[in-house]
Design goal:
This protein is of the alpha+beta class and 244 residues long. It contains four helices and eleven strands.
């Protein structure tokens, strides 16, 4: 077998394996926190916020998740999850709050509380989805302090990063979403609003996103390995042909 060809193939495979290890290590670290993934971040738009619930407190199963809404939000529509019951906590405002349409409110939804019908084992994860109307405040970061209660103990995901500080450096960072500039008007605002509500039922079952990511990574590694094997075989055939 051509030694240089074999060496190149092995080097390529080793590099791919190293890269995969780093990616998987990062994925594991990220999954250790309660995080939120918005399907959109445009100002003045409806968004589905998916909160990922990781391992419990140490090795204790999760029994309750209380998500506190930032003051910039007046309400949130929780998506039904068959593993949890859900309730909305209402806050009485100290003074009426005027809305963009000219109306005013005296109450707002301050918290969404999901209670597990059976404790979520620490080795499993689940997702909780809220539909919210993002305010017209591009550049604003919305923080969602989340209290994770377990059979034994609690984890208070409420750390807020200071200016210039990396949120991942915090021991228990609060899930957050940064609002971007409003999307260009296209005349489909009403349809998009309706779609945001009808998509909620399917969004809660979309926890297979992680599985698809891992499958894609595996397919990529398999492709690199097969390519290395093909390179080695090609070198062997060339060597055999030269010896005839």
């Amino acid at each position: 077998m051509n030694t240089p060809i074999l060496r190149r193939a092995l080097t390529t495979a080793a590099a791919a394996a190293g890269t995969a290890a780093l990616i998987l290590a990062g994925a594991g670290a990220a999954s250790a926190h309660v995080g939120v993934t918005p399907d959109k971040t445009s100002a003045n738009s409806y968004a589905l916020l998916t909160f990922a619930i990781p391992h419990g407190c140490e090795e204790s199963g999760t029994t309750k998740v209380a998500i506190t809404l930032p003051e910039e939000l007046n309400d949130a529509q929780p998506t039904v999850n068959p593993n949890w019951t859900v309730e909305k906590v209402t806050q009485q405002l100290s003074e009426p709050k005027k809305l963009a349409d000219g109306s005013s409110i005296t109450k707002r939804t301050s918290q969404i509380i999901y209670t597990a019908k059976a404790p979520l084992p620490h080795e499993l994860r689940d997702t909780l989805v809220l539909s919210v109307k993002l305010p017209d405040l591009p550049g604003t970061t919305l923080n969602f302090p989340t209290l994770q209660t377990c059979e034994t103990g609690q984890t208070d995901w409420s750390g807020i990063a200071k200016d210039g500080q990396d949120p991942h450096s915090l021991e228990a960072p609060a899930p957050s979403v940064t609002i971007t500039e409003a999307a260009a008007a296209d005349g489909h605002g009403a349809a998009a609003t309706g779609a945001a509500h009808t998509e909620q039922a399917s969004a809660v079952t979309d926890s297979g996103a992680d599985a698809r990511s891992w499958a894609g990574l595996g397919a990529g590694l398999a492709g690199l390995v097969l390519g290395g094997v093909a390179l080695i075989r090609s070198g062997s055939r060339r060597k055999a042909g030269a010896g005839k």
